């Protein structure tokens, strides 16, 4: 007695769900900027930095199963005593992702949290390199929890939707 270990023929109907596919196609810098408006005088005083960091993510559909995700990091460092700007570094780190078989909220979370987690180490290295080339001590940015940022953004959107609904009644 022989067992049938054959797989379905090409084109045969199966009840399987569409296969999930995720791949990173390319990582690239979309925009980069460094300014040290008060140099060289900023190098002639003691360096007492006050760092402000702004972090944003965005995504857009490029083709049927291709998406661009961008992590924008803006680091501004001012002198803690005088308030003068030591430097401003801005990096838009982007990635091109091929994603299929993921839809709705799961796709939104993938684009809003998972992909930025993959891109952030590249953005962090780029900012550090810019700052170093600008003649300043390294700026080692701490890891970021994009899952928490995504959850906070969704919570804010839900609150705004509720407020808008209450205002219409």
Automatic annotation (TrEMBL):
Entry keyword set: Chaperone, Cytoplasm, Protein transport, Translocation, Transport
Keyword Chaperone: yes
The UniProt record lists the keyword Chaperone: yes
Gene Ontology MF annotations: unfolded protein binding
Annotated localization: Cytoplasm
Pfam families recorded: SecB
InterPro entries: SecB, SecB-like_sf
Single GO cellular component term: cytoplasm
Primary location class: cytoplasm
GO process annotations (BP): protein folding; protein tetramerization; protein transport
Subunit structure: Homotetramer, a dimer of dimers. One homotetramer interacts with 1 SecA dimer.
Family, as annotated: Belongs to the SecB family.
Purpose of the protein: One of the proteins required for the normal export of preproteins out of the cell cytoplasm. It is a molecular chaperone that binds to a subset of precursor proteins, maintaining them in a translocation-competent state. It also specifically binds to its receptor SecA.
Protein name: Protein-export protein SecB
Originating organism: Vreelandella arcis
Species lineage: Bacteria, Pseudomonadati, Pseudomonadota, Gammaproteobacteria, Oceanospirillales
